[in-house]
Amino acid sequence: MQRKLHAFEQALDGFVPASAPAGLGEAMRYAVLGGGKRLRPLLVLAACEAVDGQGEAAMRAACAVELIHAYSLVHDDMPCMDDDVLRRGKPTTHVAYGEAKAMLAGDAMQALAFDVLTPDEGVAPALQARLCRLLARSAGYDGMAGGQAIDLASVGQPLDEATLRDMHRRKTGVLLQASVMMGASCGNADARALEALDAYGAALGLAFQVVDDILDVTQDSAVLGKTAGKDQDANKPTYVSVLGLEPARRLALQLCDEAHAALNASGLADTAWLRHLADMVVERHH
C-alpha cells in the first residue's frame, strides 16, 4: 500500500501545475498536496487491483477523485460554509491565500479532475466516459453538493437517524462509494462482483462519517488536524448527538462488518487490501 501511495503522490504532483497564473497553482498545490489520509485514491487503487484492472486508468481516477475531495474541502472551509481555519494540521486555504484565490483554486481543481480523466490516449473513451459519470454524479446535487446543502440547512434542527443517514450518504459516502466503483470500472468484473463492491463502498462510506462524528467529540484538534468539537459548537446534528456515543461506535463496527460481508459475497479472489481499508476507517484516530 505504501508503494502504491508513493506512486500516487508522484502522479498527483505531476498533474497539479505550479505554473498556473497569479499564484493560483501555488494555492492549488497547497490545498491538494498537503497530505491527508488519501483514503479515496487508495480505494480506487485497491478496487482496481481486486478486479485485475488497468493501472493507468486507475491512477488517473485516483488523482481525479482526490482533486474533487480537495476542492470540496477548500470550499467547505470558507466563511460562507463551515468557516474553519484549520485543515490537515495547517491553516485552511482561504486563511493562507485569501477567500477569492481559495474559491478559484477549488474551481480549478474541480475542472482539472475531469481533464485528468480524459487523456488523448492510454484510456479507452468508453472507460473515460464511465469514470467521468461516476465522479460527476458523486460530486453533484445527488452527492456531495446536495449533502452539504442539507448540512447547512440542518444547523440547529432536530434530525432523525434516517434523515441524518441520507445527509451523510450524500455528503461523504457517495464519493467514497464512487471511488470503489471507479477502480472496479477499470477491470472486467462481473455483475456479482460489481454489486458486492457497490455495497462495500456504501457501508464503508457511511462508517467513515460515523467515525468522523465520534472523533469530533473524542479527540483534540492537534490529533485531528482540524478544529475539534466544531459540529457540536455549531449545533449541527451528528451520529453522536442523534444516537449517543456508544450506539454510534456500535454502528461503525456494524457497518465495517457489512463491508466485510459484501467482500465475502463478491467472488473476487483477493480482497485483502479492501478489507484492510475498511478496518482502517473504523479503527482510525484522526
TrEMBL record:
InterPro entries, per database record: Isoprenoid_synthase_dom_sf, Polyprenyl_synt, Polyprenyl_synt_CS, Prenyl_diphosphate_synthase
Cofactor: Mg(2+)
Uppermost EC category: transferase
Keyword Membrane: no
Enzyme Commission no: 2.5.1.10
Top-level taxon of origin: Bacteria
Keywords recorded for this protein, A-Z: Isoprene biosynthesis, Magnesium, Metal-binding, Transferase
GO function terms (MF aspect): (2E,6E)-farnesyl diphosphate synthase activity
CDD domains for this protein: Trans_IPPS_HT
Annotated family: Belongs to the FPP/GGPP synthase family.
Protein name per Swiss-Prot or TrEMBL: Farnesyl diphosphate synthase
Origin species: Roseateles agri
